[in-house]
Amino acid sequence: MLPSAPAGSPMLESLPAAPLLTREFDSDPAGVYQRLRHTYGPVAPVALMGAPVWLVLGYAEVLEVLRNESVWRRDVRYWRARAQGTLPPDWPLLAGYEVRQTMFMDDEEHRGARQTHNTALAPFQNGQSPQGWELRAAVARYTDELVAALATESGPTGYADLCAQYSRPLLLMVTTKLFGFPDDLGDELVTDLWQMLDGGEEAGPATGRALAAMTRLAAHRRAEPGDDLPSHMLFADPGLSDEQLGRELFMNAVYLNDITNTMVLNTLLEVLLGNAAVRRSLSVGQLEETLNRAVLVNPPTANMPFRFAARDVRLGNFWIRAGDVVLPSAAGAHRELMAGDSAGIAQSVLSTRAHLGWGAGPHQCPGAARELGTMIVTTAVGRFFEHFDQAELASAPDQLPWRSGPMVRGLRHLPVYYELNQHSRARAQLPAAPASRGQDGTGGAGAVDGSAPGSRGRRGLFSTMRRMMPGGR
């Protein structure tokens, strides 16, 4: 017989749960995790935008939640507060969880959808296949184009915001390529994806518009198949409806544009904070370890998607009731992992692979997607530093602007001073009289609008990015 919570054990709703998202959390989330751990142990009650949630901070406890699918479910229909109507229907994060796609499925339904993803992504992940070779070549070409655009605007030495002028447009270009966007669809998705990922009152409407756009893309690719991810998903599972495929594309676009972008920025930051020997020694293999270290120190998905208890279960110092929601914290778990040798991990080029950046258990990032993400990040970081003799932070590390939301912690801007090396191909495209060098982080965006080689087919997307980038996210 399965155990149940003993009489008298506290209910989540009855505990004094302080808000998680505060000014203190924005400036020092590690300090908040440490204080909660000291007060409650590896599992702590918190209020997330007004909803009571169990925040799981211990590494062993997080692994238990991620690995034990029979107890910890991903389907939002298990959430008791939602089922009983005590969760407001306009709760800011609910719109995303209501989108029924692979991430929020369980058991056989999840395994079947996951297999479709692995089958569809496999040709693009495999560097020996025509699709994989072409995508790798495209990612490398896009990085060179963006560096050339940056140099055209600011000259061989200058200032750049690597978020607005490099990582964000790079991931949008990759998405356009991988998804096979028709020219008239890219523009409308950019604004909606960014508004949805930022949350707030526009998140719900933006989610609806982005889903509608992805459904139109699914219908377009059903009518006109191509050598792209939507078409390969239809090849793998012809029974997918346009609505089902649209939901899956929506999920992939979110992760590709937000999580992978944040991984690029966090890895660039780790290199910029390192010494010259670390920068000089970068190679493909070492870049993967640099990525591992960056994710360990600062996981982009600081707090992973919700799990819902299928039954009463003991976790940490509390009994979790059936239908309670738990928030597994990769950032909190990594702090515990590093506690024994934090200085050694911070200084070493090599890092442990025990990080939770790709998740763990049945819902961890599919192997093909993980390899694809690693390729994009390592290519973006490696080729960036191939172009420069010098690149250094343009602000003190403790002054960098972080976007610290309930799930993702990433940089809003990554300002650097740079100097192109003499062998960079970007130098060949510099105008005879270099453009003036602004220092507001917006200069490179203007040059992206069609000035980079090979950008003709992406003018619409670049135009939207140009309008969006100056303010950043």
Tags for this model:
single chain, 473 residues, alpha+beta, 19 helices, 12 strands
Strand content: 5-15%
Uncertain runs are 342-351, 434-473
Oligomer class: single chain
Indicate the radius of gyration in whole angstroms: 22 Å
Give the overall average pLDDT. Answer: 83
N-to-C span: 51 Å
- Report strand order across the widest sheet: 1-2-8-5-3
Can you give a write-up of this model?
With 473 residues, this protein is of the alpha+beta class. 51% of the residues lie in helices and 11% in strands. The protein contains 19 helices and twelve strands. It has helices spanning 23-27, 29-40, 59-67, 80-84, 94-97, 107-125, 130-154, 162-179, 186-198, 203-223, 229-236, 242-273, 276-280, 284-297, 330-338, 342-347, 367-386, 443-448, 459-468, and strands spanning 43-48, 51-56, 72-73, 157-161, 307-309, 313-315, 318-320, 325-328, 388-393, 402-404, 409-411, 415-420. It starts with 22 loop residues before the first helix and ends in a 5-residue tail after the last helix. The model is unreliable at 342-351 and 434-473 (pLDDT under 50).
List the helices and strands and how they pair.
Blueprint: H1 23-27, H2 29-40, E1 43-48, E2 51-56, H3 59-67, E3 72-73, H4 80-84, H5 94-97, H6 107-125, H7 130-154, E4 157-161, H8 162-179, H9 186-198, H10 203-223, H11 229-236, H12 242-273, H13 276-280, H14 284-297, E5 307-309, E6 313-315, E7 318-320, E8 325-328, H15 330-338, H16 342-347, H17 367-386, E9 388-393, E10 402-404, E11 409-411, E12 415-420, H18 443-448, H19 459-468
Parallel strand pairs: 2-8
Antiparallel strand pairs: 1-2, 3-5, 4-12, 5-8, 6-7, 9-12, 10-11
Helix pairs in contact: 3-15, 6-7, 6-11, 6-17, 7-8, 7-17, 8-12, 9-10, 9-19, 10-12, 12-14, 12-17, 14-17
